[in-house]
Each structure stands twice: as C-alpha cells, then as structure tokens.
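User: Predict the full complex structure for these chains.
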Amino acid sequence: MKIAVVVRQVPDLIEPVEIAASEKTVDLGMATFRANEADDFALEQAILLKEKSGGSVAVVALDFGDVQNTLYTAAAKGADRLITIPYDADLPPAPKEAAAAYAQVIRGLAPELVLVGSYAHDELESTLAPLLARELGLPFVGVVRGVRPAADGGTAVVFKEFPAAALAKMTVKLPALLGILGADQPPRYVPVSRIRALMKTAKIEEQEAAVPDASSAVTVRRLYHPAAGQRAEILEGPPADVAAKIAGILKEKGVCK
Amino acid sequence: MSSQDVLIVAETSRGQLADVCGELLGAARALAALTGGKVVAVLPGADGSVLAGGLAAADRILLADAPLLGGFSPEPYVAVLENIIRAEGPRAVLVASTSVGLDLAPMLGAKLAAPVVNGCRAVSVADGALQVTASFYGGKLLADLTVTAAPAILLLAPGAFRPTPEKGAAAVETWQMPSPLAAGAVVFEEMILPEGGDVDLTQQEVVVAVGRGIQQQDNLEVVEELAAALGGAVAASRPIIDQGWLPATRQVGKSGMTVKPKCFLALGISGAPEHVEGMKDSGLIIAVNTDPAAPIFEVAHYGVVADLLEVAPALTQAIKGA
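Assistant: Here is the predicted structure of the two-chain assembly.
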C-alpha cells in the first residue's frame, strides 16, 4: 500500500507560548518545535501498515521548525521518502492554506492512503485533515485509532474512537484520508545514533508548492494567557508539609479516616 | 439573507441523547437571546422520535431520520446537515467537540464555505457581530475573535457551557431530504465496546489520575501505592493510555470515562479541555503539577506546584500515618 503521511511542526507545550507585541499572533521566535503528536501516531500507523502488508511510506512536511530532525527520525522509523515543501514565514499557515499546499504535493504521489493527525494544538480555524481530504477529493473519517488493510485490497478497516473506550468499526474505500488520533502501538523509539547515521545517507526531497494566502471571516482581536490558578487554593511548602495538608483536607472531607 | 437562529447538532450515544446536548442547548439559548433568533435542534439518527423530548429546551426540533444515520458515517451525516443548514440559514451552528463533531464541523465548513472555530469557550454579540473566545495550544492560550460570516460553525470546548435549566416544549418536525441519502465511501459496521473485567472508574469514590508528569511507566508504582492507601483506583489522561501504560478503560476524558468521584487527584496532568470534560464534576479535585500555569488549576479546588514524584510518596506516607 502506498501511504503518504503529513507531519507538522508545533511548539512544545512544555515551554510557555509567547504572544507577539501586537497581541494578535503568537511569537514563535524562541519556541522549541516538535512533531505534532497526532501526526507522530499517523506515522507509526503508516509504518505498521507497511510492515504488515508491504508498500511504501512517504512523509510530507512544510519546511518549518525543526523539520529536518523530524524527517530523519521518520526515516529511522522506516519511512521511504522524505519530502519538504519550502516555506519561509515566521508562523505556520492556517489549516486551509496548509491543505492547499500539501494537496499539490500529495496528489503527485498518488497514494492509496493519506494519514494525518486528527488535530494539532495550534489549530484555531478548522482542522487540516478533513480540509486536505476535500482538496484531494478523498473520503475522510477522523478520530481514528487503528487501521487494518482489508483482504480485498480496495478497502481498509478503521476503528474510530468514541467515549468510554468504545470503538466504531468502519470500512473505508481506498483511496482515502484518515485523521489519526492513536495507532495500534505507541510511536516507536529510535536510537539517536541511528538518526545521526541517516542524516548522512537519507535524502530529503524538496517539492515546490504554493501556500495561498486565503481570506478568513475570523479576525483575531486579542490573544492572551488564561489567568493562572484562578480557582485552586495553592498549597505551599516542602513535599512532606504539603502532603500533611492534603491528608488533613482528605480527612476533613471524609475521603479517608 | 441569513436568519438569526442558532442551530445545534444533537448527538446520541448508545441509544440515548449524549450528555453534550445539554451544553449545546445551554450555549444556544444564551446566544439566541442575544441574536433574537430561535434555537433549532437537529437530531440525525435512525429514529429520533423517542429521544426528541430531551431537546425540548429548543424552539424547534428537526428529526433527520434515515436508516443510514443509525451509526455515524461522515458522508450521509454531512449531506443531511448541509441540506438543513442551507435551507435554514442560521447565524451559527453549534457542534460538540466529540468524535462525531470533530469530523462534522470542518467537513461542513468546507462544504458551506463557512468559518469554523475550534475550542469555543464563550460566544456573544457586539455591534451586530459574533464575538467568540476560543482556547488553543492545549488550553494555554485564549483568543478573542470576531466572526463576520454566517453561518459560523462553532466547536464548543468540552465543559465550557452550562446545560440550560429550561425544560421547554419545542415543536418536533421531521426533515424530508429532497433525495434519498447515499452510503458513502466510509461505512459504519459496528460499535465495539470494551471488555469487562477491569476496574469500573465510574463507581470509584477516589480516583488517582496521572498524566505526562509520571515520566515513565516504572513510576506508576508510586501512584498505585497512593491509590491503594486511599482505597481508590488509578486512572490516566490520554498520553498514558496512548503509550500503552494503562488500559483504555482507565482513561478519563472525552474519549474515555466521565467520572464524578468524591475525590479526584490529578497528578502531573496539565488539564487539557478533553481531560477536564471527564472529571470536572468530581466532588473534591486536588491537582499536582510543576507548571503553575497548567489549566488543571482552573478546575481544581486545591493545587500544589511541585513534582508528583515527590508529593505522591509523601502523601502515601501521610495517609498511612494518619
């Protein structure tokens, strides 16, 4: 099965997200980037499908953030083709613009399956996966956490996540685009030494694609951080003292004796 | 010309109206009071007539009944909702951030060339324009937005709106599609429910939940000891389940269980809206997180800014010694 995977770069939320002086955009100048978590699961699912049924995996990414490291890591995991789309801006494109750009490249790959993370935490207006499906004219279903190739070769069986650990089993005619939230196993670990070795041998292809500047009916008036700890009463002190305070609260509330 | 009505996309879960319908109705009633329009609830399904009563707080209920809508398949759902939205021309369409809503909202937005806003936490009208406050970056940023086009498709953040207390007596109408629905390329086969045998989190009086702050699987032992000392059960936020460190039946949040224990300890959990949805109604919430700006402190009653790996063992000792 020929599979294309989109992997986006997002700021690591371990660090604070800075706001630009205009208060209308984020300031990613000092951000540390990482692969979007759901995209990482999409890549894992693609590699698992390839290992089970053969085929190839092409990873497509905008040249943004720490994309080279992400792509070499993808190669170390088993991706066959690494493709970047040149992109020179301080902020990533909105999902609508990104979908138009990714579609130009993915169309040329003629994949049977396109896997994209169901969401990215920096998406404010719509989400990439269904918009890319529409650009490509492919059927779509999202919030998927497992994919199996069907015996007939023309369909796949997907498992869509629902509350209380329920899964909807669905049959999808190929080609199709799936929004991935989880995979049949967690993203695999690859040693840094293997990634470094692939940096010397793996080839990153560059494919031009126009990133349109689409208009939007949504205007940002202001970005801001939520007020911290608005509700919680913060308990302070060394761990033993804090633990004693919590134990006292639990006793007072009748949670423990 | 669009109307000032507010339309909600109602959902079902295991044969019942989903809990999110109350929040959708609450948000819609508040917004419709500002726009001067009516609240229109749309319920797609195989036979919505038995569930329509739960949507009576709307002004109108449109039942879109068809065998193909008995289980969720994106294309027939989008087809029927597109048809209704084009005919009704509402000012806003409110959709829950559920497995179904997260598919429908962007697909409808693309079909209708309508703006879609994720993570909506507040909606109002000022100078005739729709004003939305939305959260993104895992709840670490808020954005005040103006949406100028109609219909605006708004994905409501989990738990951001109160269910309406109104009972109502909405008129129920059956929506007639102009042509029969066609099965799409994505076909619903069956719903697979988790196997029994594991702990039922919904029945626990004490839930000790862990998130990324646990760092590695071996550290779960610390939390298990604390849960045992409290006579409770260990649960987790999504990343821990995705790593395979605990079974899916232990997940609390939008995709997992909704729990309302007497006490919920959130250890190393940032408090993404998807998690908060599943635990916000707990009687007593105590959160431990190294990040003082973690959104979990917005819902917790008590908070500790510290490493859970230091606090949890100390708390176990304090409980045992109490």
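The CA atoms of residues 285 and 300 of chain B lie 5 Å apart.
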